[in-house]
Structures are given as C-alpha cells and as structure tokens.
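User: Fold this one for me? It's DUF4254 domain-containing protein.
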Amino acid sequence: MNFTETAWKVFNQSIEDYHVSDDVNALINNPFEKDSLERILYAKNWIDTVQWHLEDIIRDENIDPAEALQLKRTIDASNQKRTDLVEFIDSWFLTKFENITPGPDAKINTETPAWAVDRLSILALKVYHMSLEANRESASEEHRANCQAKLDVLLTQKEDLSTSIDQLLTDIEYGNVKMKVYKQMKMYNDDSLNPILYQKGQQK
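Assistant: Here's what I get for DUF4254 domain-containing protein.
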C-alpha cells in the first residue's frame, strides 16, 4: 500500500469514527500507535472533520450572535491546530528524507507534501458528505443526480491528487525535487503581530 492509499484509508476511518456520535465536542480516540504516521494522519483529519461541522453550525441563520462569536474563535483556534499539525507532518517528511541529497537540477515544488496531504484530507470529507447527498432518500431525484455528478468529479480529483502526491514523494526520494519548508507564520492569532490585539494590550 503506497502513502496516499494509507492516508485515504486513515482519513476515512477518522471520518467514520467521528460520525458515530456526530458531535463537535466528542473526544478523539486515536486507534493508532504513538509516533506512527497513521496516528498523525488520523489526528489531522479529526481536526478537519470537527472544523467541517463547526463551519456548518456557524452558517445557521438563526444562530445566537454570542454563540456565533464563540464558534468563530473556536474555528480560529482549530485553524491554528490544523496549521501546526500540517507543519509537523512536513517535519516528519523532512526527517524521512534528511539523508537524500538533491540533484544539481532538482526543482522546488510550489507545495510541500503535507499541504498536499491537507488537501487530500479535506477531499475525503467532501467525498463522504457528497456521497451522503447523492444517496439521501429524502432528497429529490434531481438533487441526487446532481450530487452524483459532483461526486464523480471529486473521485477523479482524488485519483489525480493521490497520483501527484505519490509522484512528489518519489521525486523527493530520488533527489529530483528539493524539499523546502516555510512556516505559515499566521499573524491573526499572535498577540504581538495582530494590531487589534497588541493595540488593545497597550491601552491597558
């Protein structure tokens, strides 16, 4: 089983496990061994799955404004955890390939392996939920047909993205692509970089 096959299987296990309770406050019960790549991938998708449903909740037109504000802050915190975990996955790959010497003509990819994996994780959620819609008995036949067409596109995208990720990892392993990682350096959650936050602190 290659990397993306493993990742896709883990992502779908996470999604299925979440939907047992379908509760954004449910505690993660990661079934994989400590320090394993599968454990990291499961944790990554769990964050994505919870955030997917938080984004659904906050779009309720009748939501209480105070609750919406709290949800927005929860989503911001989730985004930071997501970014941190993506960067951790890239660190895992950097360690894996640390003894690889890139060739003189090695290229630099526009996207790191972990950020591509991030897209694969989100894609797994899209496939899961679009499949539900394509088979929802309470929906109209037209709705189900439209969702099936979208699902077909998503599955094609999954195949293409998986191939691209596996090719990227192979190219890094053989020195044809140089792995280079830049931290995201998100500013809105940092008290020292977000002017709204640090100006508020100066006024105290």
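One thing worth pointing out: The CA atoms of residues 191 and 197 lie 5 Å apart.
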